[in-house]
Write a structure and sequence with these properties.
By secondary structure, the chain is mainly β. It has one domain: Immunoglobulin-like. The strands form two sheets. A five-stranded antiparallel sheet has the order 1-2-7-4-5, with no helix packed on it. It has a four-stranded antiparallel sheet with strand order 6-3-8-9, with no helix packed on it. Strand 8 and strand 9 form a beta hairpin. The longest helix has 10 residues. The protein is globular, with a radius of gyration of 15 Å.
Length: 120
């Protein structure tokens, strides 16, 4: 019985939450972007590939840290704390693109969170 519970805990998807970005802008971030804080939590050392889907045509999604912004997807390995955050950006690149875009952030482990459409 304990082995079954352990196996279930090890295969559980990460937990994704999205909130307003309240920290100072990251040096890698685009100033004109719509910004949200994406928090990924789970078991220390757990890995997941996150991908942004459902982004409107003419918009780009990016997962940013203080070192780099990764367009459309990012590979995450949780630190010892079991929690990490990204500045998730939606960037309107085409002037003829819709004025707003949302997204769904989906993990290859079945996790997901929706980002509500926000006007640029």
């Amino acid at each position: 019985m304990h082995a079954i519970l352990l196996a279930a805990a090890l295969s559980a998807p990460v937990h994704l939450t999205i909130a307003a970005w309240t920290a100072p802008p990251l040096p890698t971030a685009t100033q004109a972007a719509v910004k949200r804080e994406l928090t990924v939590s789970g078991r220390a050392g757990q890995s997941v590939r996150l991908r942004a889907t459902g982004v409107a045509h003419g918009w780009l999604a990016a997962f940013c840290t203080s070192r780099v912004c990764s367009p459309e997807s990012v590979d995450v390995t949780l630190p010892a704390s079991g929690r990490t955050s990204y500045e998730f950006e939606l960037i309107r690149q085409d002037p003829s693109a819709p004025n707003r875009s949302g997204a769904r952030i989906a993990g290859d482990d079945g996790s997901s969170v929706d980002v509500a459409p926000t006007p640029h």
